[in-house]
Amino acid sequence: MKVYKFVLPSHNYYVSAVVDGKAEVKYFPGRWAKAPFWLRRRGYHLTAFKDLKSAREWAVTECGAPVLNLHAELCEAEAKGVIDKLPPVCLLWKLSQGIIKQGGNFGCWPKGTIMVKRLRLIKPIETVYDLVEKRRSDATRQLDTSN
Predict the structure, then answer these.
(1) Domains of the chain by residue range
(2) DSSP secondary structure string, the chain?
(3) Model pTM?
């Protein structure tokens, strides 16, 4: 299944763009990745977006923008083992400490979120910086045409 994932470049691999510390996942291009064991055993696996539109919209909203680094990349990925029902949302800063504490993001997953057991990056599409600049350019163009 094709999905879309935000990751940060780091040497010859990528890391999770949203969580770090004990919840961080390393993604090596072309190799399958899975969530850390302590998360998997509690029913938490890898998250991504079902479609490109949802991923792009989340990255430039008040929900995604504070979480993502401008150097993060949106990648096309292949996923296996879709989890039918998403578990409760967790506080990201607690996940980084190795603690599952429900809450955060107003208690719901971003629109278009999917959880999968395994994920393999296929190719980078664009950076968060590119998405923000495109959004800014579109907004400026709309202002210019309305005057």
Answers:
(1) 2-146
(2) -EEEEEEEEETTEEEESS--GGG--EE-TTS-B---HHHHTTT--EEEESSHHHHHHHHTSTTTTTTS-TT-EEEEEEEEEE-SSPPPPB-HHHHHTT---B--GGGSPPTTEEEEEEEEEEEEEEEHHHHHHHHHHHHHHHHHHH-
(3) 0.88
